[in-house]
Amino acid sequence: MTPRFHNWHSSSTSFRVRIALKLKRVEYENVPVNLRWQDSDHDRPEFHALNPQANIPVLEVSGVRLQQSLAILDYLDRTYPDPPLFPSDALGRARVWSIALHVACEIQALTNLRTQRHLINELKLAQDVLVPWQQHWISVGFAAIERQLADSSATGIYCHGDTPTVADCCLVPQVYNSQRPVVGLDLARWPTIQRVYRACLEHPAIAAALPTNQPEFESPSGH
Amino acid sequence: MTPRFHNWHSSSTSFRVRIALKLKRVEYENVPVNLRWQDSDHDRPEFHALNPQANIPVLEVSGVRLQQSLAILDYLDRTYPDPPLFPSDALGRARVWSIALHVACEIQALTNLRTQRHLINELKLAQDVLVPWQQHWISVGFAAIERQLADSSATGIYCHGDTPTVADCCLVPQVYNSQRPVVGLDLARWPTIQRVYRACLEHPAIAAALPTNQPEFESPSGH
Question: What ipTM goes with this model?
Answer without folding.
Answer: 0.95
